[in-house]
């Protein structure tokens, strides 16, 4: 396979707790051109405009988990990944 | 090898029953129970608190935490039990128990486990004051508490 | 004003029942239970342990400790329960519970109370290994632990 | 009352835990010429010879309570006082 050619990534994106309420959905399936990172996914979501751009940008603090492990903007996404977006945790 | 038991559940828990998981061979048993506080907001008493979590990730994170803390403090056993769903004021939310040969190890383990649980386990609290609902914000003090322990 | 309850007794205790003394209004409940360890000495397993105390002085010392620790950590409540008499391996010896609005105050209070109890409350342990009886010696580490807290 | 004239002090002396076993008694009533301190009482007990001199002297560590408060050698004894002698505590 040619690494410069885009390959489609099918992602299951989850929105949890406050983000589910403000973004109005609990999950969706997205397809990105790969290779892509968490930062690429976030850019795509912010491009939807309000409330996406304010909830996932600016000074709002949120967390990302990829396949149930904490991730950061540089984390590489693989086809079939489960990406969860949620606020800082408040259990205990 | 320490006995570790982790559970995420709707049902309430009974301390004595849960302690049974860890046996009675250890000299020291330290524990912490977190409960829904009798809070008020702008004069309105708290009606309920809903605990949401990320199924799958929660259990894994708690299991890893329990194992790491057990190793660090040379525990005989660790129990971590966290409820989810809608809870009323006074209801129990979380139980952490550590058993060890000596008291300081057991008490420190409970302290360390709670600090980590509060910062890394994917649970969220949503409070109801009458008709008003609001998600609880994370506190900076939880991050500061975590920094006391260094890497697990 | 914190609720304080202190007891020196032969009978065993039940955690949930004792917790009832402190009500359910506090968010944080920290506790410590000390039990008779499954020890061996020169290959002989521990048969029993007898807890002796100085009646009158014990209750006063525990009451003063409970009050002092409650004030220092701004607790909602404190429970100190210590058994006396002959106990078998695995049996409960002591229960300390602190309730507070927040977890660090409750956990620190339990730690502080146990350190003081171990150094100033007039209890003595006598171990039986088969036919051999011997009084447990005080440990220097208990004095060192006490020094962490300064004056109560 | 003339402070230089001895006044009798009646003391209830208790021996607890290991000291009860090694000294062979749990309590006794003693009368001292007052004024007297804990140090005076201990000197009187040590003068009984073995095992008193070794258990309450040399490098053996023990504690004294007067009327159920921790005391030291300089603590003044009053008539009717309860004096308890015991090893360092080991509860909890």
TrEMBL record, chains A, D:
Which domain of life does this protein belong to? Bacteria
Gene3D superfamilies (UniProt xref): 3.10.20.30
Q: Which Pfam families match?
A: ThiS
SUPFAM superfamilies tied to this protein: MoaD/ThiS
Name the record gives this protein: Molybdopterin synthase sulfur carrier subunit
Please name the source species.
Answer: Chitiniphilus shinanonensis
Q: Which gene encodes it?
A: moaD
Automatic annotation (TrEMBL), chains B, C:
What does the record give as the reaction this protein catalyses? 2 [molybdopterin-synthase sulfur-carrier protein]-C-terminal-Gly-aminoethanethioate + cyclic pyranopterin phosphate + H2O = molybdopterin + 2 [molybdopterin-synthase sulfur-carrier protein]-C-terminal Gly-Gly + 2 H(+)
Q: What class of enzyme is it?
A: transferase
Give the record's keywords alphabetically.
Molybdenum cofactor biosynthesis
EC number per UniProt: 2.8.1.12
Q: Which Pfam families is this protein grouped with?
A: MoaE
> CDD domains under this entry?
MoaE
Tell me the pathway: Cofactor biosynthesis; molybdopterin biosynthesis
Q: Which InterPro entries match?
A: MoaE_sf, Mopterin_biosynth_MoaE
Q: Which Gene3D superfamilies match?
A: Molybdopterin biosynthesis MoaE subunit (3.90.1170.40)
Family named by the database record? Belongs to the MoaE family.
Q: How does this polypeptide assemble, per the annotation?
A: Heterotetramer of 2 MoaD subunits and 2 MoaE subunits. Also stable as homodimer. The enzyme changes between these two forms during catalysis.
Q: What is this protein called?
A: Molybdopterin synthase catalytic subunit
| Provenance organism | Chitiniphilus shinanonensis
Primary gene name: moaE
């Amino acid at each position: 396979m040619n690494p410069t050619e885009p390959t489609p990534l099918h992602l299951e994106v989850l929105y949890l707790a406050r983000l589910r309420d403000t973004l109005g959905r609990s999950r969706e399936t997205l397809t990105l051109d790969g290779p892509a990172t968490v930062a690429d996914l976030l850019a795509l979501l912010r491009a939807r405009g309000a409330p996406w751009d304010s909830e996932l940008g600016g000074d709002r603090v949120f967390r990302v988990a990829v396949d149930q492990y904490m991730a950061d903007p540089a984390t590489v996404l693989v086809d079939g990944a489960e990406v969860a977006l949620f606020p800082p945790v408040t259990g205990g | 090898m320490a006995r570790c038991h982790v559970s995420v559940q709707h049902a309430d828990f009974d301390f004595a029953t849960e302690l049974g998981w860890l046996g009675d061979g250890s000299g020291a048993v330290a524990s912490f129970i977190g409960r829904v506080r009798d809070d008020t907001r702008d004069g309105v008493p708290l009606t309920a608190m809903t605990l949401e979590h990320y199924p799958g990730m929660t259990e894994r994170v708690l299991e890893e935490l329990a194992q790491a803390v057990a190793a660090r403090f040379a525990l005989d056993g660790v129990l971590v039990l966290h409820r989810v769903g809608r809870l009323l004021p006074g209801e129990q939310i979380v139980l952490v128990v550590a058993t060890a040969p000596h008291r300081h190890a057991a008490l420190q383990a409970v302290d360390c486990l709670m600090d980590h649980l509060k910062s890394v386990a994917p649970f969220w609290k949503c409070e109801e004051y009458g008709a008003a609902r609001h998600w609880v914000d994370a506190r900076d003090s939880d991050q500061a508490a975590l920094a006391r322990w260094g890497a697990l």
